[in-house]
Specification:
This protein has about 400 residues and is an all-alpha fold. The chain has 2 domains: about 1-50, no CATH class; about 55-380, Na+/H+ antiporter like fold. It is about 80% helix and about 0% strand. It has 19 helices and no strands. It has helices spanning about 1-25, 30-40, 50-75, 75-80, 85-110, 110-120, 125-135, 145-170, 175-200, 205-210, 215-235, 240-250, 255-260, 265-280, 285-290, 290-315, 320-330, 335-345, 350-380. InterPro entries: Cation/H_exchanger_TM, Na+/solute_symporter_sf. It is a multi-pass membrane protein. It is found in: Membrane.
Length: about 400
């Protein structure tokens, strides 16, 4: 058992390292290497990793750590002053996604449940991908970065009512107690964030001793990050939302900045498993047999999503250059869309063919997002700045 574990980790590490070194020559982001490694090492090809569920669970830890880090980086006061912008953008996003899917669903004779599911799926962007772009480019504290982060946060919050809606239309109604728990949890965390905006609500004692002790730093970071994630999960909300709230509290105090930094290696490791799990779930034979349909749909999603988001950012006061860039950033389909798709399959709302097509389209938009964003960046930086900055 232990030899299989070590050989699996060794093969995984070598394959990921080789792909990273190869893709770096083409200036591709690391998550592309992780997804390709998942496809290669999965049960459909080399069969090095037999159980995708384990990688998925490890990947969820990576999302929690990422959201914690982003919470520590973001300017909460700026986000609080501009809260209406991301909120309005997300609401219109969902409405326009529903209208697009409704028109398509009527043409293809889809059921109401499938139309609702698909509108939810295409309305969500990838927090993991967008946050990494903003972090590496140093734009996460910019005005555009803060509004974009706000949009992603609003999307993550709205995943909960989306999940409840899918349960409702499938006939697996959530209990009244669960609904009360979700509402109470959302209100409590929002009040917690409101208090965090007004004043520092957490002071860690023994700061000098802790700064000199790396082991203490890691486990204090774990307690705060995963403690808030567990509380959020208990209320029926996304664990990532709780971790984000914990990161915001930590980020208020410069004396606690070591907490976020001490968790960076762990975040990188577990985030790799998140993208690896995406590749593991992809059926390469199905993809090859339906490649034309998948690529056409994926490119259409990138184009339409970019257009919608660009117009929405422009209408909320961003310049055309920033709006087009934000549209490109948010164009791919996100990780929580996998959650909704998997839930819909377990509830019997989609058959296997639609599940595989949708899974392949989501993965393709992620893989193509870096190329698409490169095209957009080259386009906007050749245009003269127009409109409000």
């Amino acid at each position: 058992m232990s030899s299989q574990l070590f050989s699996g980790i060794a093969v995984l590490s070598c394959v990921v390292l080789f792909l990273i070194l190869l893709l770096r020559r083409f200036r591709q982001p690391y998550f592309t290497a992780y997804i390709i490694a998942g496809v290669l090492l999965g049960p459909k090809l080399l069969n090095v990793i037999h159980d995708p569920a384990v990688a998925t669970e490890l990947g969820e830890i990576g999302i929690v750590l990422l959201m914690f880090s982003i919470g520590a980086e973001i300017d909460l006061h700026h986000l609080g002053r501009n809260f209406y912008k991301p909120f309005a953008i997300v609401l219109v996003q969902i409405l326009m996604s529903f209208l697009c899917m409704y028109a398509l669903g009527v043409y293809l004779d889809w059921s109401a449940s499938r139309i609702m599911l698909m509108s939810f799926i295409i309305s969500l962007s990838s927090s993991a991908i967008v946050f990494q772009y903003l972090e590496k480019s140093g734009e996460i504290r910019s005005s555009l970065g803060i509004i974009t982060c706000g949009v992603l946060l609003m999307q993550d919050i709205l995943v909960v009512p989306m999940i409840l809606s899918l349960n409702f239309i499938s006939g697996s109604n959530a209990s009244f107690f669960e609904l009360i728990k979700v509402c109470a949890g959302g209100i409590l965390i929002l009040l917690f964030l409101r208090a965090a905006i007004k004043k520092k609500i957490l002071k860690i004692p023994m700061r000098r001793e802790i700064i000199a002790d790396h082991d203490l730093q890691v486990f204090i970071g774990f307690c705060i990050c995963f403690g808030m994630a567990w509380v959020s999960s208990w209320f029926g909300l996304s664990p990532a939302f709780g971790a984000f709230a914990a990161g915001i509290v930590i980020g208020q105090d410069k004396a606690t900045r070591w907490l976020e930094k001490s968790l960076i290696p762990l975040r990188v490791f577990f985030m790799a498993f998140f993208f690896l799990a995406i590749g593991l779930q992809l059926d390469l034979h199905f993809f090859a047999a339906n490649a034309g349909t998948i690529i056409i749909v994926a490119v259409s999603v990138l184009l339409i999503s970019s257009l919608i988001n660009s117009l929405l950012f422009r209408l909320t006061g961003s310049s055309w250059r920033d709006s087009i860039y934000a549209g490109g950033l948010l164009s791919q389909i996100g990780e929580f869309s996998f959650v909704l798709l998997t839930l819909a399959a377990s509830l019997g709302l989609v058959e296997d063919y639609i599940y595989q097509i949708t899974l392949a389209v989501i993965t393709s938009t992620m893989l193509l997002s870096s190329i698409w964003l490169t095209i957009i960046r080259r386009l906007i930086y050749t245009l003269p700045p127009v409109g409000k900055s």
